[in-house]
Every structure is written in structure tokens, then in C-alpha cells.
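Researcher: Going back to the complex we discussed earlier. I've cleaned up the inputs and rechecked each line, so this should be the final set. Can you rerun the prediction on the complete assembly and write out the structure?
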Amino acid sequence: MWKPRPDEKPVSSNSPSQPTLAPPSAPAFGPGKETHSLEPAKASQPFRADVAAHIGKSVLVKGELSGSEDLYLDGEVEGTIELNNHTLVVGPNGRVRANISAREVIMHGKIEGNVIGTERVELKKSCVLSGDITTQRVVIEDGAFFKGSVDLQRESKAEPRKAVAAANGVSAAPVAVMSAQSSFSEHQ
Amino acid sequence: MRWFRGSEVAQPKPAVKTSAGPRSSRRSTGFAEFTRSLTGYKDLSALDLGPTSSANIAFLTGFGGRVHNEDILRASQDRTYLARQEDGSEMLDPQKFLSENLDYPEHRFDAILCWDIPDYLPEVLVKPMVERIHKIVKPGGILLAFFHTKDAGPDSPYCRYHIVSGEVLDLEPRPDFRLQRVFNNRHIENLFKGFSSLKFFLARDNIREVLVVR
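Model: Rerun complete. Updated structure for the full complex:
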């Protein structure tokens, strides 16, 4: 009964040689539930809904929400959200009353709080944001409602990467991919 | 709708439900003057009272400093600012509105882009808004406002303004609001009587551009 079947192979969540795809409906918060694609994140696809952690629209979180993976948030959060070096997507049903800090923040829903996106902040057309934005790049779709201030950080943190890339004789884009790979694999 | 202010309280008219038109560009002398006034600021603190536009944010942050955005017209449609009158009707409560909008410390801003908001704003909010602006703009700070002339006509579309360059604006007609009134020069001077100077620029498209200095 407990003998493993011959066709079953042990799966280690830490092994980069065993890629698994998280089902889209599987939220990945519990330690035993974490499943990720081990495919490295590509620069052209910085956020993939099928592999990101997912908070559904019926979920209410109060307190500090932090993580080291991309997050799709369609529920309600009151408190703080910290996803350093990762992407947060607030879905159309998302209701956030929290200060947000992430590498990239893409917002469709309603947010009250300050948003720090170290690389980019994007307000989609259905977004309603009341709060201050601090970022390097901001993208605002026609129809988005924004009340607050924008502080564009001109001193790009990507500069050192570009400088390294230039020194190595490669373009900045592959370096960004490499960075995404290493960042991703750290958390597997 | 009354085309001259003062004899009747203008009520907000329902928005004209037409589709948004194509964008058009226009050269703005008032905006060029506004931009020239901004050069020299190190940490510019600017407030855009129009709908959120990434072009405007990008342009204004180019001067360094911080850009604030408040879509005053859209906020004025929020029903939570309505107060019930003795006769049972509901009317916008300016105090309630200003407790949650344009709520900044005194002398906060160097520059404010008001666009043509006073022409579309409900009557009860126009004067309180200008008084609040007077409070939050720094002495010597500037404000740019546009006003339609009588020749513009009542169906003059509400436009979103996108900054293209230091003297060119993109106008994006939107069906969201309808012109509430037309100010003449004397009304505009009275509206901004607490400010130190006004400079008028009359454009060909029946828009009067006014650069106001606190």
C-alpha cells in the first residue's frame, strides 16, 4: 500500500530539474501547496497568471501580506503588501486598503494606499487609486482614476545593470532576463 | 442654462452621451507661458486637476519634483457629497466636497493646471474651489485655466488635455460633462480677485487662456 509505484518519481520542490506547472486554480500559499513552473521568467512575460500565487475574490486578508513570488490579488486586503522583486497584479475585483511595495504593480481594481513599484506601476482603465505612487515608470490607461501624487525616481536602479552589461559587451535586455532567472530560482 | 453668471444657480446637466471624438492638437500660448514660468524650479510641486494623463505626469515630472493629480470633475459626480436640502432635494455640499478633495497644506504647490474645469463644474463648487486653490498655491505660484467664450456654444465638448510639448496640447473630446456656463472677462477677474495678476490669451478656437499668479 505504501510502496511507491514504479512509475512515480519523487518530486522535490527544490529541484530545478523537475519542472511542474501550477494549475491555474491552485493557490500556492501553504508550504505543501507551492508549485511553480521552473521555467525561468522571461523578460517579455514578466507576469504569468498561471504560475503566480492567486488570492480569489472571496478572500479577505487583514494584516501584513508579504511574499517572494508574483501574486494575483482579486480579493480584499487591509494592511500592507510587500512583494519585493516581484509583481503584484490587483485584479478587477481586488479591493486593497494597504500600502503596496513590489517590483511591478499592475492595478485593475480599487486601491487606497501608497504604491511603491521599484520598476513600474501600471494603472489599467478600471483602476481607482487613491494614494501616492513612487516608481521609475508609470503607465496609466485612459479611464483610470488616480488621486494622489507621482514621484518618478529618475535615478534608475537598473543603471548598474546597464553599466555591467555595457562592460560585458552585451545589451541590457538579456541581463534583465538573467536577473529574473536568478531571482526566480532563489525562491524555488 | 444661463450664459451669463450671477442671475441663476446653474444646475448640472446630464452628460451628453455621445462617443468620444478623435484627438486634435492645438498650440497653446497660455500653456507655453506656463511652461516658461516653470523653468528654474528645482523641486517643482505641481497639481493637475484634470483627468489622469500619463503624458501630463511625464511632462511635469520632467521638471523634477512631485506631481499631484486630482480629477475634480469626476470627483464632483460622487453622490456621497450630496446633502439633502429642506425641500427634500439633494445638492452638492461644498464643505463636504472640500473636506476630501483639494485637501492639502497651505502654500503647497508651485503650479496648478486647472484646464477648463470651472466651465464644467457645478456652480456651487466653483468659488469654493478657487478659494481653496488660492490657499494651497504658494505666493508667486501659477495657475493655468481655460474658459470658453460665448461663441463656443453650449455643446462645446468637454476635452481631456494631454501635454504633447511645452506649447502643444492634445485635446481629447469626451462625452462625460456638459458646459455649465460661460464666464466673461469680468467674471474671471472676480473669480480670481484674491490673486495678484491675471494674463489673458485669446485663442482662435473660442477658448480664453488665463495665466493666474498667486
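Model: Worth noting: Confidence is low (pLDDT under 50) at residues 1-45, 157-188 of chain A.
Researcher: Good, that matches what I expected from the previous run.
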